[in-house]
Amino acid sequence: MAGIEVTSLHKRYPDGTVAVEHVDLSIGDGELFVMLGPSGCGKTTTLRAMAGLERQTSGDIHIGDTLVNDLPPAERDIAMVFQFYALYPHLKTRDNLAFPLRAEGRPKAEIRERVEEAARMMRLGPLLDRKPHRLSGGEQQRVALARALVRRPQAFLMDEPLTNLDAELRADTRTEIKHLQAQLGATMVYVTHDQVEAMSLGHRIAILNKGRVEQVGTPLEVYDRPASLFCAAFIGSPPMNLLEVEVAEGALRAPGGLALTPPPGLRRDRPLVAGVRPEALEITPAGADGTVPGRVVSAEVLGDEIIYVVDSGGRDVRVRMPPTIRFGTEAPVGLRHTGGTPPVYDSSTEELVA
Asked: What would the 3-class secondary structure string for the chain be?
C-alpha cells in the first residue's frame, strides 16, 4: 500500500469551466480517507485525476514515492470502484473477478488463488457461477469490490459506490467496506455526498466546496468544530443552528435572548454567528428557570428522538429531544443552551474565529 499526495491540483476544461480550483491533500498509507461535498464541488474530478482518468491542468499527484502526472491509469497501480458497477454482463462472477488478472497475463494458478481469496473475503462463493443479471444490487457491488481486491493495488479509489443501493444494503455494505479496509490495512480514498457514509467510514474527512478544501479532520473534529459556515451548515442531520449573536454581559446573546457561553478572547468588532448543535439545546415547559420563551413550530418524530423546530425571537431553531418529552405544535416552551462553548464565525468572511 502507499500514501497519496495531491499538491496544488487545478482542473479547467477547454470551455473555461473550473472543476477544481485548488486542492492539497495528504492521504496516509493505510488510511480510509473520505472526500465529502455537494454535487459539483470537485470531489469526483479530484479522484479521477488521482486515477489518471482526468488530466489536471496543473498540480502534482504522488502515489507512494512516484510522481504519476504523466502515467496512464494502468501504470498507477490503483484499483477503482465506480458508482455504476461496470461488470461485464456476459461473464460469470468468477470471470469478472479474473478479468483484470488475465489482462495482466498472470499465471492461471495465481489467478485461481486470488479469485478464490477475494470471493471468500466478500462472501461470493455461492455466486461465482452467476452472471450479473442474476445478482442483486448489493451482490453486484460486492463483485465490483472483489474485482478491485484481486489486483492487490497500492490504493483503492471509490467513487460513490453505494449510491444505487437501498438504505439497508448501504448500511450493510458500509460495514463490509470498513471491515475490509481494516483487515487489509489498505489505502482507500472514498468519494461521497452522503455525510452518514463519510462520518461512519472515514479515518479523516476532507470537505470540499466550489473546487476547494474547506476542512480536513477526523469525523468528530469536523462535527464538533466546523472550520467554516459552509462546513457547519453541511455536516450534521439536522444541521447546526447558525445564530447571529452579540457579546453582552459576559455572554453571547442570540435572537430571543438565548444565552451562550462565549469562547475566551472573542473580539466584538465583527459580525458574529454561533453554531449550536440541536442536541446542545433543550426545551422545557414555558417559564422554567434559565430559559427564554419559545413556541413549537413543528415536531419530527423519528422513533428514538424528536426534532422540534422552535420559534425563538422570530428565528427557527432546531432542538433534538428524547421521544419521552412531548410538546404539541404551537405549544409555548422554554428554550435553553446546555452544551459547552459553541464555535463562533465571522459572518463577513464565513471563517471560524473562536
From this structure: CCCEEEEEEEEECCCCCEEEEEEEEEECCCCEEEEECCCCCCHHHHHHHHHCCCCCCEEEEEECCEECCCCCHHHCCEEEECCCCCCCCCCCHHHHHHHHHHHCCCCHHHHHHHHHHHHHHCCCHHHCCCCHHHCCHHHHHHHHHHHHHCCCCCEEEEECCCCCCCHHHHHHHHHHHHHHHHHHCCCEEEEECCHHHHHHHCCEEEEEECCEEEEEECHHHHHHCCCEHHHHHHCCCCCCEEEEEEEECCEEECHHHCEECCCCCCCCCCCEEEEECHHHEEEEECCCCCCEEEEEEEEEECCCCEEEEEEECCEEEEEEECCCCCCCCCCEEEEEECCCCCCEEECCCCEECC
pLDDT of 69 = 95
List residues bridging with 284 in a β-sheet: 334
For the record, the C-alpha cell of 300 comes out as: 419530527
pLDDT 10s digits, 271-325: 899 999 999 999 999 999 999 999 999 999 999 999 999 999 999 999 999 999 9
Taking the CA atoms of the chain, what radius of gyration do you get in angstroms?
24
- Cα distances from 50 to residues 69, 79, 243, 257, 294, in angstroms, run 9, 11, 39, 50, 51
Q: Which amino acid is at 270?
A: R
Domains and CATH numbers, the chain: 4-233 (3.40.50.300), 240-346 (2.40.50.140)
| pLDDT tens sequence across 176-191 | 888 888 888 889 999 9
Residue 146 has pLDDT above 90, yes or no: no
Cα(110)–Cα(48) distance, rounded to whole angstroms?
Answer: 29
Whether the Cβ atoms of residue 277 and residue 343 lie closer than 8 Å to each other? no
Average pLDDT, the chain: 92
Q: Is the pLDDT of residue 333 over 80?
A: yes
- Nearest Cα to Cα of residue 88 among 33, 55, 131: 131
* Mean of pLDDT values over 192-207: 94
Q: Counting beta carbons within 10 angstroms of the beta carbon of residue 265, is it exposed (0 to 12), middle (13 to 18) or buried (19 or more)?
A: exposed
- 47's grid cell: 479522484
